[in-house]
Structures are given as structure tokens and as C-alpha cells.
Amino acid sequence: MRLAMVNLFCECYSWKMIRVLFLLLTGVIGIAFGQKAGQSSGNYSSDTKILATGQQLFENYCSSCHNFSQRSIGPGLHQATTESPKVWLKKFIRNAPAMISSGDARATRLFGEYKQMMPPFPSLADDQVDAILAYIHKNQKVVTAQQASADIAIKDPIPAKIPQTGGQLFLQYHSTAPATGSTAPLARINKMQVLTGDQERLFVVDLQGVLYEITDKTWHIALDIRPLRTHFTTSPGLGTGLGSFAFHPDFSENGLLYTSHAEKVHSVRGDLGFADSIKVGLQWVLTEWKIDNSSKLPFTGKSREVLRIDLLTIAHGVQEITFNPLVRKSHDDYGLLYIGIGDGGSAEKKGFYPLCSNNKVPSGSVLRIDPLGRTSRNQQYGIPSTNPFAFEKDPTVLKEIYCRGFRNPNRIIWTPDGKMLIDDIGQSNIEEVNLGIVGADYGWPEREGTFRVDPRGDINKVFAVSTTESDKKYTNPILQYDHDEGRAISGGFVYDGQTIPALKGKYVFSDITNGRVFMTENRDLLVGKLAPIQELDLWVDNERTTFQKLNGTAKPDSRLGIGPGGELYFFTKADGKLYKVIGFQPK
């Protein structure tokens, strides 16, 4: 959940509003407080102009997280306005924390369930709320997902809790990214990478469209794509924007930098997508930048479009592009670019789940291409001969696919001993890390972690895998946790630096929604087993704390990166702060 965290009306007006509205409608779905289902709790306009305004707002800013059939990233809205009083909804928008503090039963219940206090939003105009609610009210209906399975859903997939036995992780504040937002997240910093060479250089990307180089704790603009790409967009969607970047391993010689960014749909059809009859929700573009002089900032040079990808909605796009940093020039994986593509929300949009498991579309897969080749359909990149479908005779099968079966693969890394790890943000139950294997299928939307999902019914439920089902069809994760612990995994790294010997060989990761920090041993990340997880105590500048405490009511949106010398860093989108890990004390 780009974010599995349930947020209502994603990207609607502002991030602050998202947090308030999140609790607004999570509180009204499936919870009737003394009101009969189907009974309207307020007067909602039926004026065509108001409904049109509400529909436009909903489609532009809300549809990535919600629909009128079932729960998506946020709750299904098919009974929202019929199950809660309108006066309560509007009051809750104005000041959710005050209602929680006052002991309001509905608000308190929500806070207890989601462990997040949403900030107030007093500036939201009545007519804006009314228009959206009027459109939602128009779409109220009784919907029962047709569950193909007669099995009983598992309410608590992993009953055992993660023990807080990992030890103490010590962080030191490093610097703060320039603010690109007026409310949290103040800086949507999304990925860190070191450019190797005679001297290591540290770069961080902001989804708002800016790539920075950090020197002496100062953030310098290396590339700002906002004025360079007319259709570039950073909203709606929690992961929309400048998603990722990667330097070619021969950057010192060829000056090639690659980026992935989101664009509003316009007249250009994607190179990879689906049938023309299916409406495209958002496009992701892979660009190659030929840098003239990398020592001079900001970068200047030429660019070319390598690949354009069509996705069904604004959700779960291209959050990762990367090269294998471990292989040498003689290896057949050298210089090949991996592209992590989410399902584009197709599993959540009724009737479109087959797009997630179709080898003829890119949704839900990791692609691998040779950006310097020219054997692709659009003749802008090459197809590696070692890809699983490289010699497929069916011309409609995507030869770019390396592996598939993902919902939202937002980080791909390699461990020091050469294992490829792909983390996948789950739907409503499981967060997972997978061992990347060529040709493997990790199961989404038929699997979430080691559990079965019925995509023809309610995808928010999981079931035990039948003993009669083949174990060979899908590849199980090597690490997983359920949504009692967190709602969106933030993929991490195996520490291989020199300054903290006790941390060496440990895979450290986090959860985006609550900022908790976990670890496991790299030696336990093996196919056929699930690695045990331990939680770490967090110390920042000699004070025991949590990322949630540091960010108050805002979602921490914690991420990890590897800096110069292989040292580990954390950064949080909510406040744009960067921290360096300086110590570890095991228990």
C-alpha cells in the first residue's frame, strides 16, 4: 500500500487533508452506529453541476485509493454516507484530534485501530466537502463481493508478535532536505544512492521532481525535471512524481543517468500497456540523461525517452529502477537495468485483476532491459538474452519481464553475498520481502505473502493455501509480517560498512506507516524458509525515541539508504530529515 496505509481521498487538496479524511471514511465503512443500513443520514445534493464537481474531484484525487465495490488502499465507499451522520462527518473533518480527545466513541475506536491521530483541517470549504460527499452518496449501494472460496478467511494471519529483542540502533541527525511541500510530507525524499568513482558522491531524489547531491550536509540541486517535462505530475497518488534514479555503472565514462517519472495521460500511447479499449490512468516514463559535465551542478546535457508504460490507475507505479552494483563487466548482468512496476491498482479495480498476472502487460512485474541496446519493439533499448521470455515466439509476450507477481515492488537491492531482494507492499494483510529469481512468479493477486487471496471476491481477505495446490506455481517470500505490526514495508539493506562491526550482516528495514525499525540476519534470508524478525529500539541523538514520536501526528514515511562507505541512513518524508546510523548494541 504505495502505500498500504489506508488514506482517504489520496492526494486530495493536501497531505494534511488526507490524514483527516482518512479517519473520516475509515470510520464509516462497515460500522453502523445506531443507524440502519441504507438510510441517508443527511441531505446530499443531486444538482448535476455539484455532482460533476464531486466526480471530478473524486476521479482526480480519490479513485487511486477508493472505489464503490470493495476496500482498496482506503475503504470501499459504497455505504459511506448511509452509515454515518453528515453532521458528524463534517465535524470530524474540522478537528479530528479534538473529537478523539473528547472521547467520541467513533473517533476513539478509529484511533485505537489505526494508532494514528489525524491533524485538523479547519480551512476546508463546506462546498468542497459537500460536492465530494454528494458524489459518494449518489454511488451508495449494497455490494457483496462474490467470494469464490468457501473457506473461512483468516482474521489474524500471523498471531505471533515481533519481539523487541533486536537491540539498540543509534542514529545521528545529519541534515534536512529543502522543503517542497507546505505540509507533511515536507520533502518527499524517496531514494538514496552513492555514485562510485574516484570519490563517492551522495544523491537523494524527491518525488516532487528534484534530484539532489549532498555535500557537507548541504543539499544541492543536481537535476530538476519540472521545467523539462511538460506533462510531469506529482499528484494525485502517494508515489506519483520522480520515482527513482540510477547511474549507469559506466557513468564515469558515458555520463548516463536514468530516471523514472509520472506523466498525466495525453496523446502519446505507452510502449508497454494494454488494449486500447482500456482507459489509461497514469503513464510512467523511463528517461536517459546524457550529462555533459558531472562535476558541475546542476547537470546539463541531452535526454531521450527510453520507455513509456501505461498503468490502469495512479496507484502502484514505477518506484524503483536500479542496476546490479555487484557484478563486473564480464558478467552477463552488467549494465542491465531493473524496473520495478506495481500492479497499477488493477487488482483493486473490479474486473481488472487479470492484468496483474498477464505476461503480455507490464503490471505487477520487474522488468530487465539493456538501455544501450536497440532490439526492443520501440528500438530504444535492448532485450537481454538471459531474460526468461527472450526467445518467446508469441510476439505479444513481453520479453522485458524478469519476474512477476507483485503488488507494489518499491525497492530492489542486492545483499553483499549476491542475493537480489525485492520488497512488496501488501494489500490488507501481509508485507513481504522476496528473493529475486529469474522467471519466478510471486503470486499477486492470488497470493499475499504465504496466504491465498481470491481476486474474484474480496481481496482484503486471506485464506490458508490448500494442501492440494501446487507449491511450485508461486515462489513464497523469505520474510513477512502482517498488518498488526505495520501496513507498508520500507525495504532495507544488509549492512556492510566498516564503522559498526556488530551490525555487519544484518538486514535492517522499516515500516512506512508507523516508522518501526526491524532486522533479521542475512544468513536467514533463504528460499524455502521465513526469516525471523526482531524489532530494534531507536535512539536519535542520544535519546530513545521512535520515528512516530519525532513526526507527531504525521505518518513518518520512513525510508532507508546506503551512503558513502556502505554506511546506513534513514530518512523520513514527513519532515524531510536525514539520519546516519552511528552505532548498534545487540541485546
From TrEMBL:
Keywords: Heme, Iron, Metal-binding
SUPFAM superfamilies in the cross-refs: Cytochrome c, Soluble quinoprotein glucose dehydrogenase
Pfam families linked to this entry: Cytochrom_C (PF00034), GSDH (PF07995)
Cytochrome c domain location: 49-140
Protein name in UniProt: C-type cytochrome
InterPro entries reported for this sequence: 6-blade_b-propeller_TolB-like (IPR011042), Cyt_c-like_dom (IPR009056), Cyt_c-like_dom_sf (IPR036909), Glc/Sorbosone_DH (IPR012938), Quinoprot_gluc/sorb_DH_b-prop (IPR011041)
GO MF, one example: metal ion binding
Naturally occurring in which organism (per UniProt): Spirosoma arboris
Keyword Metal-binding: yes
Domain of life where this protein originates: Bacteria
